[in-house]
Amino acid sequence: MLLHGILPPITTPFYPDGEVYYKKLEANVERYSRTPVSGIVVLGSTGEALMLSDQERRDVFKCARAAASPNKVLIAGTGIESAIETLRLTEYAAELGYDVAMVRTPHYYKKQMQPENMLAFYRTVADRSPLPVIIYNFPQATGYDIPAEVVIELAEHPNLVGIKESSGDVEKVRKMVEATRHIKRSATVTEAFDAVTPRMLAAAATPSDGGDLVPVGTLAGESIRPLAEQNTARAGHPPNPSSSAVSVVGKLKTRPKEVGFQVLVGAAHKLHASLDVGAVGAILAFGCAAPTACYEVYAAWKEGDAELAHTKQERIATAAQRVGGDLGVPGIKYAMDFNGYYGGSARLPFLPLTGKLKSEIERMMADIRN
User: Which residues are catalytic?
Assistant: First the structure.
C-alpha cells in the first residue's frame, strides 16, 4: 500500500447543539477530493474521535466513505484502548471499503505501557486486522511517546505498513527510516505512480461499457496479467516472463512499486525537514484548512527543488504551529471556516475561540487561502 503525499485528518462537523452535521461532512470530503491530496484520514485526533459514541464513529465512517472520490486513499482511525475494540472498529471500516487502519497508541494506563505491551498490542491487531495498519503516535495528546526501538521492531510485521509520527522529532523520524530501510515490500500504483488499493481495483474491475470482467482471484492478491503478456497472448504467442510490468484491470493500468516501512509525519511546521530525512508524506491537521499549501511543500520537495520547498514551508510554518499546534481543533476549525470549508464548533470540553484569537488566525491565514 502506497502512502506517499499529503493526507488531511478531517474534522467532524457539529451543529451548534453538538450533534454531528453529516451534510457538512459530505461537503468537506467532496471538496478535499478535488484537491491534490493523496488521501483522507477519517477520525484521527482532529476528527474528535474520542468525543464520539461508537455509533457516531460508525456513522461518520459511512458518511465520509460515501462522499470520497474513488481515487483517494481512505484511512480509518480505529484505535481504541483495547485490542478487541480496535479490531471491531477496524473490521467495520474494512466492510465499508476503507483502505488502511490508523491505530493510535494505547495510553490511558501509561505506566503499564511498556515495550512488551505495545509489541503485543500492535502485533495482535496486525495479525487479525483485515486492513493494513499504521501506528499513530501523538505524545502531545496522549502523554505517551512510543520509543523508536519499538516501532523498528514492529516494522518487521508484514501488516504493519507504516507510522504517523506526530511528535515533531525529526531525529526520531531519521532513526526509524534508517533502521527500517532494509524492509522491502511491493505496492500497486498507477502508471503515474499514484496509489492503487484493492477497493480501487475492485471498482476498476466492475464491468462498464461492455468491459471485461476480471477474476476475483486477481483482486485477492494473485498477480494481474501484464499488458504486454495480454497482447502477446492475443497474437498467439506464449507470454514472456520478462515483459513489461504494466498490468490492466478494466481501464486501470497499474504497475508494482517497491516501498519500505512508510514513515509519515504530523507536524506541518517541520514537513520539509522530515521529508529530507526520509519521511514519505504527512497526515497534517493544518492540511484540513490549507490542503493545497501543504501539498505544495511536498510537491516541491518531490521535484527536487529544495529552495522552493523551503519557501513553501516558510509560508505555512508560523500558522501551522500556532493554529494546529497551540490552538488545536477549535483553531483548525476556525481556519477552515476562514478558507471556505465548514469548521464550526468543537465539542465540550473545547471552548469557542475568543474574538482576539479569531483575528489572529485571520491574519496568519490571510495569504494561505486555498
Answer: 164
- State the pTM of this model: 0.90
Cα dihedral 88, 89, 90, 93 sign: positive
For 215-271, the pLDDT digits (tens) are 333 443 433 344 334 443 434 444 443 334 788 888 889 999 999 999 999 999 999
pLDDT in tens, 109-159: 999 999 999 999 999 999 999 999 999 999 999 999 999 999 999 999 999
Q: Which amino acid is at 57?
A: R
Q: Which residue segments constitute the domains of the chain, with CATH numbers given? A: 5-184+260-313 (3.20.20.70), 198-255 (no CATH)
- What is the 3-class SS of the chain, one letter each residue? CCCCEEECEECCCECCCCCECHHHHHHHHHHHCCCCCCEEEECCHHHCHHHCCHHHHHHHHHHHHHHCCCCCEEEEECCCCCHHHHHHHHHHHHHHCCCEEEEECCCCCHHHCCHHHHHHHHHHHHHHCCCCEEEEECHHHHCCCCCHHHHHHHCCCCCEEEEEECCCCHHHHHHHHHHCCCCCEEEEEECCCCECCHHHHHHHHCCCCCCCCCCHHHHCCCCCCEHHHHHHHHCCCCCCCCCCCCEEECCEEEEEEEECCEEEECCHHHHHHHHHCCCCEEECHHHHCCHHHHHHHHHHHHCCCHHHHHHHHHHHHHHHHHHHHHCHHHHHHHHHHHCCCCCCCCCCCCCCCCHHHHHHHHHHHCCCCC
Residue that the C-alpha cell 508560523 belongs to: 318
